[in-house]
User: Fold this.
Amino acid sequence: MYKSSAILIGTFWALAAFFPCLVCPGQDGTRLPPGFERIHGQYVDLITDMPIDDRLRELPRIFDAAVPQWCEAFGMKQSEISAWHVDAYIMRARERFLQAGLLPGELPQFPYGFHWGNRIWVSEQDTDYYNRHLLLHEGTHWFMNRKYLNYGPPWLMEGMAEWYGTHYWDGESLQMGIIPKDKHDVPGWGRISLIQDQLDQGIAPSLETILRYDKRAHQQAEAYAWSWAAVFFLMHHPDSQAAFREMLKQPMKDDNSLTSWLFRRLRTKWSAMRSEWNATLGELEYGFDPSRNMFAFSSQPKRLEKPAVTVSIAANQGWQASGLVVSAGKRLHVQSSSMYVIGQLPKPWTCSAEGVTLEYYRGEPLGKLMMTVAAPIVQEPDLSEPLDRIAIGGERSLTLGDTGELFFRINEDSQGLSDNSGTIDITITAVP
Assistant:
């Protein structure tokens, strides 16, 4: 079952008006009711109704290890937050916490996690990973609220919480803000699978739709996945990265003003970014490496006017712009005779543009030369749609169905690119 942390942000402001001083027994180090235990950390006290074991003992260590990473992400010094502290309630039986006064009855129902002021509640999950994920997700809300003294737009608040909640933990070191290499590393998370399922079904929301999420949107599980994807994209894409970082330095408001601030700074790039978003979603999978796979247009593409032009791409990168724009209806002959390496074990796999038939990816031989055509999207689309992948191989003649810039890559999953080497020379000939 796909899980979300079900933060009902819309309730926060109502609660602030009617219950400004919700106080729980055991808060601030006072004595707990019978049947509850406390584990102390530097920045967090963990309070639970569960028997204390090693997996619970490590949760305060994990939270404390997250704090320096939150500081770096949000431009804070640890000396500035030395007095910050939060109580985290890890609940096996919600009713026990209600009866003991450790969960105010005024709070809304939440199936997974909730943050309010200097308190976090997490319901016990089926996996250790997802217990940690929810703690870090809610911890991100806590840290952002302490820094900004307000809540930002829902897509940003939930997207950032999902980004920093997704993590690796090896028992000693914590790495937050990662693209998982395998779904088995993050049981219960499911964001990438949901995104790919909705793309396949033709119901994936546009980037603008996500940025317009209101305070009720995250009552639906998919909103967490799409908020995570939007934050990931804007945080890493070269067209938006600087503006996104600058946005995090601005005051937070619980309306669309911060989203409008970002849009104004990206206005001239937005048409291109719609297409770049679509292309990125089409390749987003476990092990996605943004340093190799962020789709981007050429700064000054030129029309294909010469009879033949040769371009070169690297075997260890995702989609690469050719710098050539071709009109719909134009007939092309695309050819490559290059040899390159698409793996190192048990020995280097030398490959031609036809690929190797010992292994297939997305229905085509591994390493086969692929092409796509993309152009900026001037009008906001109703939905997000991945780009068409066109198999080229050693050579192919074809008539283009769309006007746009030509992009090339080899056929391999995102995390398989890192051990490739070599260059592919591609000759594009305009056929009269």
User: Anything to note?
Assistant: The longest strand covers residues 423-430. The chain has a mean pLDDT of 93.
